[in-house]
Amino acid sequence: MLGRLVPMNNVVRLDAVSKVYGRGQSAVAALREVTIGIPKGSFTAVMGPSGSGKSTFLHCAAGLDRPTSGSVRLGDTELSAMNETELTELRRERIGFVFQAFNLVPSLTVTQNITLPLRLAGVRTDEAWLRGIVERVGLTGRTDHRPAQLSGGQQQRVAIARALVARPEVVFGDEPTGALDMMTARDVLALLREVVDGLGQTVVMVTHDPIAASYADTVLFLADGRIVDSVTAPTVDMVAERMTRLGAYV
Ligand SMILES: Nc1ncnc2c1ncn2[C@@H]1O[C@H](COP(=O)(O)OP(=O)(O)OP(=O)(O)O)[C@@H](O)[C@H]1O
């Protein structure tokens, strides 16, 4: 049924990925044989009831955690074969992250926060690219400010710029609008949409919010560790209806 979601140009591919936490009687199967491809230049939202495996999916797909079995590939790179140092390097150089808590360094300016991943990787900043990113996220004129001088939405824009600065193959978001009020959240979601449409970036975002999910091209629904449904060109109502059917709001 999900075959049409797995074309050849996948940036990320999970094959039969399972994740079991703990052992014996206390073992919890958080993911069960999940197979999915994330096409290049797509915006994917991952939804599901609490405990359905969303965070585990994101962590396995992004090389933050290892599956118990199965394969995770970023481009042609098989992640399960990598050691911790290699995974750290891969995350730094090839993956962008945007979290609910913006995770900015308070003592650094906007520009210094954005370019931090490059400095950690020992890579020179491409000034023209940086200017373009800063402009795209709407922070021109704020580059010397510190995080405390910015609103929540502006801080998340810094985090998005930081996620984009190394030209990653994919950006993973874990509830990126979870800490924002609705209006600000919509601005940030529109920015993520624009990053996909304008830069061809691939974005995968875990969210509880049907409005947030409606900005994506495809919504994947997890239940009990499995992808049980997907919706393309989602509307808020379609997403809310699916979530209700999965028992998320009852
Ligand atoms: N470190 C862990 N040790 C043991 N069990 C865990 C661990 N992390 C997650 N789990 C269990 O795995 C299952 C999936 O958890 P996960 O956090 O991926 O779900 P989720 O959909 O992200 O939930 P939520 O929406 O509440 O954040 C749950 O049953 C959870 O209790």
UniProtKB/TrEMBL annotation:
<protein>
    <submittedName>
        <fullName>Putative ABC transport system ATP-binding protein</fullName>
    </submittedName>
</protein>
<keyword id="KW-0813">Transport</keyword>
<keyword id="KW-0547">Nucleotide-binding</keyword>
<dbReference type="GO" id="GO:0005886">
    <property type="term" value="C:plasma membrane"/>
</dbReference>
<dbReference type="InterPro" id="IPR003593">
    <property type="entry name" value="AAA+_ATPase"/>
</dbReference>
<dbReference type="InterPro" id="IPR015854">
    <property type="entry name" value="ABC_transpr_LolD-like"/>
</dbReference>
<dbReference type="GO" id="GO:0016887">
    <property type="term" value="F:ATP hydrolysis activity"/>
</dbReference>
<dbReference type="GO" id="GO:0005524">
    <property type="term" value="F:ATP binding"/>
</dbReference>
<dbReference type="InterPro" id="IPR003439">
    <property type="entry name" value="ABC_transporter-like_ATP-bd"/>
</dbReference>
<dbReference type="InterPro" id="IPR017911">
    <property type="entry name" value="MacB-like_ATP-bd"/>
</dbReference>
<dbReference type="GO" id="GO:0022857">
    <property type="term" value="F:transmembrane transporter activity"/>
</dbReference>
<dbReference type="Pfam" id="PF00005">
    <property type="entry name" value="ABC_tran"/>
</dbReference>
<dbReference type="InterPro" id="IPR017871">
    <property type="entry name" value="ABC_transporter-like_CS"/>
</dbReference>
<feature type="domain" description="ABC transporter">
    <location>
        <begin position="12"/>
        <end position="249"/>
    </location>
</feature>
<dbReference type="GO" id="GO:0098796">
    <property type="term" value="C:membrane protein complex"/>
</dbReference>
<dbReference type="InterPro" id="IPR027417">
    <property type="entry name" value="P-loop_NTPase"/>
</dbReference>
<keyword id="KW-0067">ATP-binding</keyword>
